[in-house]
Each structure stands twice: as structure tokens, then as C-alpha cells.
Input
Amino acid sequence: MSTSKNYAGIPDQFAQLETAKVILIPVPYDGTSTWGKGADKGPKAFLEASENMELYDIETGSEVYEQGIYLANAIVENSSPEAMVNAVHKTTKDFIKRNKFVTLFGGEHSISIGTIRAFNECFDNLTVLHIDAHADLRESYDGTKFNHACAVHEASQTTNLIQVGIRSMDAIEKTFMDDEKTFFAHDMVTDEYWMDKVIEAMTDNVFITFDLDAFDPSILPATGTPEPGGLFWYETLEFLKQVFEEKNVVGFDIVELCPNEVDKSSDFLAAKLYYKMLSYKFQGEDAGDEYDNTYDVDYKSNNNLKFNDDED
Output
């Protein structure tokens, strides 16, 4: 996936499964995209950009890689969209049950169906924060419910789904959309309180699925379906920082990077976004702290986790 066996080329001591707090799972999948192809090359481009990124975060004054980041084997499953979703679900859940902070980098947005399913099975009262240009609420598309256009349909039925940055959708998706928890880009641009409103709609446990086409294509053009009128860098960071400070973010995925061989700026933005999100998650924690309390979960009382060891 990259020139180094470790995420961002970090020293081996911070890249071991046993001691790392963070798991990074690449999913180079592009089986159902319908316009710009290349999302399967996104994880490799992201990892290469990460190796060329400074690892000191100025804003938080931290080097979050010292918390330990384990680069898991890529999930490569191309036999069918459903098989891919099942593989992502199983691998994600396995790592959550090891009490790790699990993150994924796609690949197209259909990978999030399996990711969200795993987190929803493991955390009570889950909010899915869906940051995207597209609603992705179709029940099925092109003959499968595991299409990228269906990425959060299941979440709309089973979790507290909140959608941010939406500016493209089909009329049928209105039937699955919660108007009170959907924040359209054209409204956000004139509403100075939109961030507070989003956070007020959340439960305590939050999973973030971040489609990179949520960004304006002027700052991130390398995505499969770029839409004008998107988010910009600092407003996005301001929002994410607030979410991480006020809620228990239990994991996240980032999807839909379609790298451009000529322009590496999108790859680098994706790399910085991932590292920023980790920096916000672990801000103020010592690298030597045990991970047992990162989620504030109590395995004995099953306070926030709802594992079933009999499940696959």
C-alpha cells in the first residue's frame, strides 16, 4: 500500500498491534462507483502523502502518532459489493472488540455500510455523523443495496443519522431523509449556528463517516463526484474539533479520494484531515496512558458496548 510498512513511516515502537491505540484499515474498493473511477487507489495515495507529512500538529501541540497507530492489512474483496461489506463489517468489529480506536480509509463510500453496521452493533445509541455532498440514502441502486449511493440508507433506519453539507440528491431520497437532522450546504452558508445545531442533535457516542467530496472542489478536486459549493478547510476543522471535544467519537472513516497523478494536493489534504481528526481525539492524553478508558466503556457492566461473541 505504501513504501513503508508503517503508517506515515512512524517508528516501529509506535506501530505495533498490541500497544497501538489506533487501528487504520485501508479498503481499496471501487466496485460500484458510477462516474469518476479511481477510489480503489485512494488508500495508497493517502498513505504515500502521510509519509511526507510533518507529524507535529501545531494547533494541539501534539504528536498523536505516539499514541500508537497500527496499519492493518488492506481489505481486498472484489467478488461482490455484498462480500466487500461483509468483510469490512467483520474486520472492523474484530478490532473494536480488541478495545481499539478503529479508523478506515476507502475506497468508495459503500465501504461505510459495513463499518457503520459494526459500530452500531458495538455502541449503544449511536449517532452517525455523515459529512458529504450527496445524501447517499437510496435503498438500492444499480441492482444492489450495497452501492455507494446507498452508503447511509441502513444507518438512516438503525442509527441517529445526521447529514451535513448535502447539496446533491435524488427526489426518492427525501422519503428516507430526516429534515430536522439534515443540514444542506445552501442553508449552512447563511446560518452561523449550524455547528451548534448539529451537535445538539447528537447522542453521546458518535461515528463519523467523511466523504471527501464534502469539501469544495477548489480545495479537493480529486474525488469521484465533485460538487460545487462545499466546505472549506478551517470551518471543517472548527466543526470537527467541537464534535471531538463535546462528544465521544468512537471511530471514523474517510472515503472517496480518487487520486490525480498530476496534482497531489488532494492526497495531502486527506492525509492532514486524518491526522487532524486523531489529534483532536487524543488531545491532552499522554502517549503512555492505557487505552482501557479511551471510550469510557466498562466491559463488565456492558455500559456502552453491546458485543455478542456468538456473532461472526
